[in-house]
Amino acid sequence: MKKYVAEFIGTAVLVIFGCGSAVAANTLLGGDLGVTTPLAFSTLLIAFAFGLSIVAMAYSIGNVSGCHINPAVSVGVFCAGKMSVTDFIGYLVAQFLGGIAGAGILTVFFGSNEALGQNGYGEASALGTEMAGAFLVEVVLTFVFVLLILGVTSKEKYGSIAGVVIGLTLVLIHILGIPFTGTSVNPARSFGPALLVGGEALKQVWLFIVAPVVGGILAALVYRFLLASEADA
């Protein structure tokens, strides 16, 4: 039970700090507070907020649950044969509930559910990325992220640096992905905000659930084909 609670807390923290920073940065960018921020700079702020959230959670709950805090990561770990069915289901439930809880806390923080860092495509994309392009972006970015996690956690000698490596990789992924989709690579991170925002965000959230899962599965298949035997050596 402790690892499920850890996944719930970790996912909530990721949404609070990652999505919360996105809302705050976009508010400044829009000049709502009389301050304007260059888009490139706000992208970096958001990217580092998500990455540092992962680092913080990796070194706090990592020894309890492995700090997946992402259904796509759990899918990849499960498909790589490193997770039981019971834990897989428990992690998914905890992560989605954590994402919803994190979005709920943000609603209280901001006093509104109008913007909670939700993902989107088409008119909701900074680059106007259409559905097919957004799907491909999310699959590729999630594939890279999950493959990295499977690789860096495969040997104990990487244990001390794994959290930093994973966090910095998430920063890199967000730097590229934010202009296209806002960067999901995490169904729970997307579902919580979309559920509370509703409307178009909720209609589009299917993509940010399906595409990361596809990316996670592909990463597991590649890991088992290319890296698993070496990691076990």
Automatic annotation (TrEMBL):
State whether keyword Signal applies: no
Instruction: Give the subcellular location.
Output: Cell membrane
Whether Cytoplasm counts among this entry's keywords is no
Q: Which UniProt keywords apply?
A: Cell membrane, Membrane, Transmembrane, Transmembrane helix, Transport
Tell me what topology the record assigns in the membrane: Multi-pass membrane protein
**Sorted alphabetically, which PROSITE patterns does this protein's record hold?**
MIP, PROKAR_LIPOPROTEIN
> Which InterPro entries does the entry mention?
Aquaporin-like, Aquaporin_transptr, MIP, MIP_CS
Q: Which Pfam families match?
A: MIP (PF00230)
Residue ranges spanning the membrane: these are 40-61, 88-111, 131-152, 164-185, 205-227
Q: Describe the family membership recorded for this protein in Swiss-Prot or TrEMBL.
A: Belongs to the MIP/aquaporin (TC 1.A.8) family.
NCBIfam families from the entry?
Answer: MIP
Q: Per its record, how is this protein called by name?
A: MIP family channel protein
